[in-house]
Amino acid sequence: MPEGDTVHQSAHRLHTALSGHPLTRSDLRVPKLATTDLTTRTVLDVTARGKHLLTRVEGGLTLHSHLGMDGSWRVYTPQERWRGGPTHQIRAILATADHTAVGYRLPVLELLRTTDEHHAVGHLGPDLLGPDWDPELALRNLRADPERALGEALLDQRNLAGIGNIYKSELCFLLRATPWLPVGELSEEQATRLPTLAKKLLEANRDRPARTTTGSTRPGQRLYVYGRAPRPCLRCGTPLRAADQGDPTRRRPTYWCPTCQQGPTP
């Protein structure tokens, strides 16, 4: 599941493979961009912003993509076989003489003027892995709606950008608060620790091939709670629990320990 660290890894791979080179192939497989041709344009930069990817090319254009729940960008050399999924799932192909970047299952793919990038990402809060990171602003954003459940507030990219469903559950566990605890009921210590802890988790995983929040790389012990119910909590041994959280159209599986975490539950 792509989260802020995964998207930054994708941006780094794409930037390394494409930037500074002219495109020899451009195939954007969405109706609005079916006739768009970016060939001969040099890729200037690929940048992550929260969970969004911005591929800037000469001529003042930016290809904006979002990975959604299961999208991905894969980079191949000319000799490699494409393994990211069946052909009908390909939404974008960008190639240079030495590499081909293939975007699979991208729910968002649009071409913008680079000067208009704010239309796509201007609503986002401070990026946990970006140069605009501001922990005080992130905390003010979270506290702006004190009645909102902590888990839902963390997933709202307008508060802080980069947290997905996995980090939501893991952060709540590390803060010892259930995901249903209203933000306003966090202790001062929990609240002030939250932005620093979130950044620490994402930074620790931005260059890892496999995500871990526990520090362990052993199978089944990489994460404290996410995806582990009803197995025992790594801290206290209590069977972990799982439930959906969010409005009916965007419910997300959520995991917690009923002993280690304090606050309301479903």
Automatic annotation (TrEMBL):
<feature type="domain" description="FPG-type">
    <location>
        <begin position="224"/>
        <end position="262"/>
    </location>
</feature>
<dbReference type="GO" id="GO:0140078">
    <property type="term" value="F:class I DNA-(apurinic or apyrimidinic site) endonuclease activity"/>
</dbReference>
<dbReference type="InterPro" id="IPR044090">
    <property type="entry name" value="Nei2_N"/>
</dbReference>
<keyword id="KW-0378">Hydrolase</keyword>
<dbReference type="Pfam" id="PF01149">
    <property type="entry name" value="Fapy_DNA_glyco"/>
</dbReference>
<keyword id="KW-0511">Multifunctional enzyme</keyword>
<dbReference type="GO" id="GO:0003684">
    <property type="term" value="F:damaged DNA binding"/>
</dbReference>
<keyword id="KW-0456">Lyase</keyword>
<dbReference type="InterPro" id="IPR015887">
    <property type="entry name" value="DNA_glyclase_Znf_dom_DNA_BS"/>
</dbReference>
<dbReference type="InterPro" id="IPR010979">
    <property type="entry name" value="Ribosomal_uS13-like_H2TH"/>
</dbReference>
<comment type="similarity">
    <text>Belongs to the FPG family.</text>
</comment>
<dbReference type="InterPro" id="IPR000214">
    <property type="entry name" value="Znf_DNA_glyclase/AP_lyase"/>
</dbReference>
<keyword id="KW-0863">Zinc-finger</keyword>
<feature type="region of interest" description="Disordered">
    <location>
        <begin position="1"/>
        <end position="22"/>
    </location>
</feature>
<keyword id="KW-0234">DNA repair</keyword>
<keyword id="KW-0479">Metal-binding</keyword>
<dbReference type="Pfam" id="PF06831">
    <property type="entry name" value="H2TH"/>
</dbReference>
<feature type="domain" description="Formamidopyrimidine-DNA glycosylase catalytic">
    <location>
        <begin position="2"/>
        <end position="103"/>
    </location>
</feature>
<dbReference type="GO" id="GO:0006284">
    <property type="term" value="P:base-excision repair"/>
</dbReference>
<keyword id="KW-0862">Zinc</keyword>
<dbReference type="InterPro" id="IPR015886">
    <property type="entry name" value="H2TH_FPG"/>
</dbReference>
<keyword id="KW-0238">DNA-binding</keyword>
<dbReference type="GO" id="GO:0008270">
    <property type="term" value="F:zinc ion binding"/>
</dbReference>
<keyword id="KW-0326">Glycosidase</keyword>
<dbReference type="InterPro" id="IPR035937">
    <property type="entry name" value="FPG_N"/>
</dbReference>
<dbReference type="InterPro" id="IPR012319">
    <property type="entry name" value="FPG_cat"/>
</dbReference>
<protein>
    <recommendedName>
        <fullName>DNA-(apurinic or apyrimidinic site) lyase</fullName>
        <ecNumber>4.2.99.18</ecNumber>
    </recommendedName>
</protein>
<keyword id="KW-0227">DNA damage</keyword>
<dbReference type="GO" id="GO:0000703">
    <property type="term" value="F:oxidized pyrimidine nucleobase lesion DNA N-glycosylase activity"/>
</dbReference>
